[in-house]
Structures are given as C-alpha cells and as structure tokens.
Amino acid sequence: MSATADEIIAKTNATHAKFLAYIASLDADAVNRRPADDRWSPREIVAHLTDAERAHRRFMQVVVSGSEMPVIENFDLDAWNAARIAKRANLTLDEMLAEFEKERAETLAYLPTIPDDAWELTGAHAALGTVSVEYVARIVGLHERLHLKEMIEGVDVGA
After folding, report:
1. In degrees rounded to 5, what are phi and psi of residue 38?
2. Cα(33)–Cα(43) distance, integer angstroms
3. How much is the mean pLDDT over the chain?
4. Relative orientation angle of helices 3-25 and 42-64, to the nearest 10 degrees
5. pLDDT digits (tens, 9 = 90+) for 70-114
6. What is the CATH number of the domain that holds 44?
7. Cα angle at 131 between 14 and 127, to 5 degrees?
8. DSSP 71-119
9. Residue 92: which residues within 8 A CB-CB, separation 6 or more?
10. Does residue 136 belong to any structural domain of this protein?
11. Which residue range(s) make up the domain with 67?
C-alpha cells in the first residue's frame, strides 16, 4: 500500500470514529432535529454522506481505470443531494448507518489498490470540476469532518 493511501486511510478512520461517536451520543430527537429549516438533521447528514461516499469512490474508480466521467450538463448539486436524501427518508438511523458503513468499507478496501502513479490522474467531477484522484480521496474524510463540525457547532459549513 502506498504512503498516500496509508495517510488518507488513517485520517479518514480517525474522523469516522469521531463522527460515529457523536451520532451515538445523540438521542432520537436530536438525531432528527434540523437546526434550521434549510439545514439537514444529523440523520439526513448520514444519508448525504452515504451517497457522497459512493459518488466519490465511483469517480476514483473511473479515473483510475482510464475512463472518463460522463459529463452532466447543468448539474445541480442541491437538487441531487435533496433527491438522494429523500430516497432514504423511510430508513431508520441504524439502516442508514449500516449503508454508510458498507460504503465506507468499500472505499477503504479500494484505496490501497490505487497504483502509486494514479493518485495524480485527473477527471471532471460534476460538482468539484477537474480534480485528481488524490484530491477526491482526501475529500472523503474532509467532507465527513466538515459535516461533523456542522453538527457539533450548529454552523453551516457549505459542504
């Protein structure tokens, strides 16, 4: 495994442990409470991170394979996020966390398989523009950290 994968996995695991501990500390009311009408509840953040995880991993897999990401004209990240969260609206928190854990396990299993010379490969990400595989790999943990901060501090981090 490359030093890049080692570092990213370590940081991602540390953040994920903090995220899960925070979610576990919340009662049912707090998990479902939105801090404001236009903001997500912790439960909705779990749903969001699950889909983001899958999308980020798919991006890396496509770029590393030498393929190109399909171009999505006029991509609306807010609409995509809302639709993906709505899709999971009927799931329990435990079901959402199980899906998130499955996606995270697949990402962590994939990262060590990325060849050393593939980390700097770039592709067109629908929401992030042209970015490298390494950048997106780092975004996975950073994205979770930002949403954890958002939940703890009650601030909108814009992630």
Report:
1. -95, 15
2. 8
3. 89
4. 160
5. 767 677 767 877 778 888 888 899 999 999 999 999 999 999 999
6. 1.20.120.450
7. 85
8. P-TT--HHHHHHHHHHHTTTS-HHHHHHHHHHHHHHHHHHGGGS-GGGT
9. none
10. yes
11. 3-153
Give CA–CA dist 38/41, Å, rounded: 10
Task: Scan for tokens 């042209």, then name that residue.
Answer: 130
Question: Does 18 fall in a domain?
Answer: yes
Per residue in 145-156, pLDDT tens? 999 998 988 754
User: What is the total count of domains within the chain?
Assistant: 1
Q: Is 159 within a domain?
A: no
- Say if pTM beats, i.e. exceeds, 0.70: yes
Question: Could you give the angle at the alpha carbon of 11 between the alpha carbons of 79 and 157, nearest 5°?
Answer: 35
